[in-house]
Amino acid sequence: MSTGVGWDPAVYLTFDDDRSRPFYDLLARIGADAPRRVVDLGCGPGHLTGVLSARWPGAEVAALDSSPDMVADARARGIAAEQADVRDWSPGERDDVVVCNAVLQWVPEHPELLVRWVRALNPGAWFGMQVPGNFGAQSHALVRELAARERWRGRVTLRHEDAVLSPERYAESLAAAGASVDAWETSYLHRLTGPDPVLNWITGTALRPVRAALSDPEWEEFRAELAPRLRAAYPERADGTTWFPFRRIFVVARG
Fold first, then answer.
1. Which UniProt keywords apply (predicted)?
2. Do 105 and 3 form a contact (C-beta atoms < 8 A)?
3. What is the pTM of this model?
């Protein structure tokens, strides 16, 4: 889901298997039997939308994303994706399941959106979301530290740890809105390989605002400065493996 800076579907899909694991974990906790309509809210390149169709073959499946590049990529996969911003979206009368995977961390006002959506759900409808919870990790802290240096200061706005809430705060907010809530967190330990794998991972996500703000030569300069910092924080093992811990936050709410 774009918020004003471009997405590159090919870069995003570089670590597809690792990035997709939380989607399946989220889906496993949604107990809908025969929904009329399932919404993939922030579908990205549509590579997981088909999983929703397979899980609920009798349902109409809608796919929405605000990035024109992601929508085009999804359509190339045969997904009838539409361009839409989550800020403008509301649940419809037939929307019995809504899945929002790795989207809302880009939307500062999303806690208020969640309350509005949950209140608008049909009785018995399901809403499931997953967001990264690793904004305090070195993979983000080192980017912020480098961006604050004189060479780059003021060039780009980056997200901090308050980009998402804790599971407890999400649960309290949505329960107060009248939903039955299941909230939890999971820390994945991704086994990455190849040169500068953490840099390559965050290039498709956390570094998007940096890429959008800098010229091509500046972008290469920034990456060159960041790479050794990330290698020191996430050292490669003798077998070529780099372990990359990644915390994620999940919420399933039922209206």
1. Cytoplasm, Methyltransferase, S-adenosyl-L-methionine, Transferase
2. no
3. 0.90
Give me the CATH number covering residue 122: 3.40.50.150
The CA-CA-CA angle for residues 52, 55, 61, to 5°, reads: 35
What does the pLDDT read at residue 13? Answer: 43
By the 8 A CB rule, do 199 and 230 touch? yes
pLDDT, one tens digit per residue, over 129-149 is: 999 999 999 999 999 999 999
234 part of a folded domain: no
Strand order in the sheet with 37-41: 81-83, 60-65, 37-41, 95-101, 126-132, 242-254, 180-192
Q: Is residue 216 situated within a structural domain?
A: no
Number of domains in the chain: 1
Among 62, 48, 167, 177, which Cα is nearest to 101's? 48
Residues in CB range of 105: below 8 A, 6 or more apart: 131, 132, 135, 159, 163, 164
- Cα distances from 71 to residues 58, 106, 216, in angstroms, run 23, 17, 25
Looking only at Cα atoms, what is the longest distance across the chain? 56
Six token digits for residue 217: 């030569």
